[in-house]
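Task: complex structure prediction.
Instruction: return structure tokens for all chains below.
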Amino acid sequence: MLQVGLAHFLVVSAILFSLGIYGIITRKNAVMVLMGLELILNAANINFVAFSKYGNLGINGQIVALFVIILAAAEAAIALAIVLNVYKTFANVNVDEINNLKD
Amino acid sequence: MTESLFTILSIIILFLPLLGFAVVLLLGKRLPKLYLFEIAVISITFLLSVIVMYFKLAYSIDRDIIASFNWITIGAAPLSGVLNIELGIKIDNVTVIMLFVVNLISMLVHIFSIEYMRGDIRYNRYFAYLGLFTFSMLGIVVTHNLLMMYIYWELVGLSSYLLIGHWFEKKSAADAAKKAFIVNRIGDIGMFIGILILFTQYKTFTFDKIFYQISQGNIPFNSEAWLTATGILIFMGAVGKSAQFPLHVWLPDAMEGPTPVSALIHAATMVAAGVFLVTRVFVMLTADAMLVIAVVGAFTSLVAATIALTQNDIKKVLAYSTVSQLGYMIMSLGVGAYVFAFFHLVTHAFFKACLFLGSGSVIHAMHHEQDIRNMGGLRKKLPLTYATFLMSTIAISGIPLTSGFLSKDGILAGTLAFGKLTGHWLIPIIGFTVAAMTAFYMFRLVILTFHGKPRDHHKYDHAHESSWVMVAPLVVLAALSIFIWYTPNPLSPDAGWFMSSWVKTPVTVVPENTRFEFMQSAVQGGESHGEIVHSPLYTETMHWAHYPAMIMSIVLAGFGILLAFTLYQWKKINADKIADRIKPLYNFSLNKWYLDEAYDATAISGTISLAKILSWFDNKIVDGAVNGSAWLGRFVSKISGLFDTYVIDGFVNFTAFFSGFIGFALRKIHTGKVQTYLVFVVFAVIILLLFFKPF
Amino acid sequence: MMGFPILTFITFLPVLGMILILFLKKEQTNTIKYTTLIITALQVVLAIILLANYNYSAAGVYEEKSFQFIEKFRWIEISGISWLGTVKIDYFLGVDGLSMPMVLLTALISFIATISSWNINHSLKGYFALFLLLDTGMMGVFVALDFFLFYIFWELMLLPMYFLIGIWGGPRKEYAAIKFFIYTLFGSIFILLVMIGLYFSATETLADGTKVFTFNILQLMNSSNYTSDGLLSPLNPNNLRFIAYLALFVGFAIKIPMFPFHTWLPDAHVEAPTPISVILAGVLLKMGTYGILRISYPIFPDITRDLMWWIALFGMINIIYGAFVALAQKDFKKLIAYSSVSHMGYVLLGMASLTTAGVNGAIFQMFNHGTITAMLFLIVGVVYDRTHTRGIDDFGGLATQMPAYTGFVTVAFFAAIGLPGMSGFISEALVFVGAFGVESIRILTILSTLGILLGAGYMLWTLQRIFFGPLNGKWSSLKDLEFREYAMLIPLSIIIIFLGVYPSAMLDIMNTSVNSLVNFLHTNFTATTISGF
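Output:
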């Protein structure tokens, strides 16, 4: 019987994290970039919960996970608001073309 | 009269004129009649001083009244012991006589001024200043200590300054006022140092306490030389105030003031303050100090008399005659004839005030003409002024039956005795010479002014006798120039109450060996109150000197008068021709021995140039050093600024340039895309992980 | 009165006023002026209350318990820095006979200067705010008994002064302001160095028995507080104590100002506006001599005794040199400035005598110079306001045109000359009495009396050139004094004459302290008192 252990959680989390990074790097649509960000946050959440069960973090891990969820929600709200504004300004949400940071 | 009543009355006498001054000065502008208040005040003061004098001389002639209080208390000071500064009054016979003299003349001058100053733009202020002067002068008279003497000494200087400069719109008046104050200050410095010596030694300013200490053999810094020096230093105050050579130059200039002021301040009272000061400190003068005083006095009287011979301004002649007579008094003190000096002070005050007020009357009548060459013949126009003026002139010339004869004869006898006793014959010789000169120039003045024919007809025609307000004071003063008030015997002052009981030579307190020989044996009789019992030798010599001095002085005065009449009345000899023949001497006298010029050339211009040099030094050198160091500071900072710009900052700039170069090179990889950066981050993390292998 | 921190109030009341003014609008000029007036008037009231409760027989000087109106608490305490020990600085205020006259003077002069500031016509808000700050600085110097606190007040007054001259001054104001600032700062550095040197030389024993370094001036006066290896200890064989004394003296001497450090004064005076000149001459100059009496003298009695001849020498130079230079001036204000140099020489001479009469005279002269010179500068201001010139030769005959003004001028000038009946005479006479009594400086004293003559010379000459003679036609429309000017000149005249007639009113305040100080100076830090521990 395959016992689900810490390693499994970590692997899932790592895959999620990598997917997130991949999404952020490759997508041109800002909304998609945001979704990649969410994936990364959730990868971290999985790690916290996993360590909460298997490590010596205890209940703290789950609390932090809760915080992260709330944070992610807040972050998503703000980010989407920014994206909307960006769209209003540039009529575009393509991150490649919004390169005013340069120069 | 009890002591406390004396004290209270004296204090009232002292402060009433101050009240007059304050009230008239502050309210005078609003109330044009306020000068009457001042006159009322001074009259009350006079009446009170008569009362005080009467009771003092009639009932307590041998008792001095002293009252004092602590003005400044420093308490028991470490190292120097108890320091208390007292103020107080001392009422003795000399004081009450002076109170009477000062108040009488002050009152008469007040009355005289009502008419003389009428129409002046600062009429009330003038009377206020007279009140201030009277207050200050009375302060000198009543004080019992040196500090208070000095305080009032300066205050009379102030009131003299204000009154000489009463017509300050005239530059000459303002100059004269300033000169008077500053020249007086020179003397005052000496006096102040003298006072400091005494205070340092005795921790008190009070005369009697100082004299007591000296009589106990406690002398300044344990040295007789210092005692002599102290006496001379204090005498310096008198040199300034009583216009003794070489500080006499202010007095003739002071004639720029209104004439009644000249009468009150610069003839009768303030200038006599110096003499009064010397009488106060007479007992602590050593033989050497007295000799200095005698010589200064004699020389002054000679200098002033020679100058008076040729002056043409009526007031200038009187001014130099005042200087000369003050020299007489000082000389008299120097030769030990204390009583005669004080006696002459009193008689001179009356007849000289009379002369000045008389000259005021003349000037008033002649519409401010002062040059006697433009007068003449005024006898008919101003009969009363003439009579009183003549009376006083006779008195000052020393003709018998006058007060001046009595006092002057006494002084001359004193000098003669002094000459015989000490061998200093020069002093009596000068004394007699001056007596002849005095008679000459005074009669020259009378003749040129009142006799002969008028030389300025226009002014003569408008001249008229002054009103009774001006004449009455003249009459009073002229009357006081007659012998009868002082002694029943017109030839011997000793017979009078003035000399025999009112004023006596005090016992000297200086150590035996520093006195004149003829004063030495006086100590034995020292117990009798306040009176020196002269050595038999001195008494004898005085008796010996009495008649020769009297005869000689009459003869010399007669000679002087005769000469004056010959030259100016009968014109037997042409005065101008004589003047031409002795031109250098004549000019020397006319130009006042060139003393003013000499002072201008030396002391005054020296001071001014020193001031200018020091000012230059201050501006260029002292301040130059400051500015120089500021400049140096800026120079150094400039150098370091250059260093900073090119070396230090150069390095900094190089660093910046270098970074810029690197940045330019690395610019390529900055795309501005977050995603590119993220790729870098991810790969960097991976590389780091691989490199450090943390797991 | 106990418990009410009256000294704090009198010192910091102006700061309160300054804050109030800062809240006002720039346009509310009258409110600003009246606020300042009320604040300074309150300060005068507080000073009078102080005087009414003053104990004339308490000495103070070196004894903490006989100081009056003491306020003392720990202000700064840093412990735990091992090599430094415990740094302890007290907020320590108190007055005695040395400072009481100065407190009265400061309150009075600030009030008068406020009235005189009435016709300042630009940037009023800034002016009055700085003015009040200056007031606090001055008052603080005179009441502080902790060296550190003293130094803070000393520097505090410098800055407003700089701006007051530099902004509201005359044509060369920048030059004068910078000169004043740098010169004074230069002096302050010396003071600072000596202060720190003293700090590391003496210790104070606290209530719990521990010994800590101290800035407390009174503790520094106690020779038994010095450790034998202390930098400035009298037992230390090095000569640093002597050098420190000189440095401290120079720091204070610049403020007096003593020859040859006096040249900032004429420039500052000439350029400063009238009220600031009044404060400068009336109060600031006194800080130098006060500092010497409060700090240099009792902390270094041994060196003071050694150097008294030199102090007297510089006093004499100040008197004579200042008078001579004054004689040559053509600018009315500069003349008065140099007369200040001369008059402060009397203070130095009196102090140098180390006798009761001399030191009493010196402090009294400080007060009198404050009132008299303030009056003289006000007088210059009156005529400058009307004519915009200060050249002595430009005037002539003003007495005819402005009789009341001339009356006050005469009072002030004769007071400056030292005429009896005015306060200046008493102080000068006491100075001379004191100094003459000391044999070693007797010759210097005699030479100094020349100052009396020269003083009369330049003052009367000025009086004559400006006021006497025929009226210069240019000035035939000048107005005589107005109400505000009477309000400044009358109180000063009254004080000058009152103290001339009844000097004990002031002398009694300081006498006990001066006696104690003189006694202290002659008996402490001698071989016996130092070897006693």
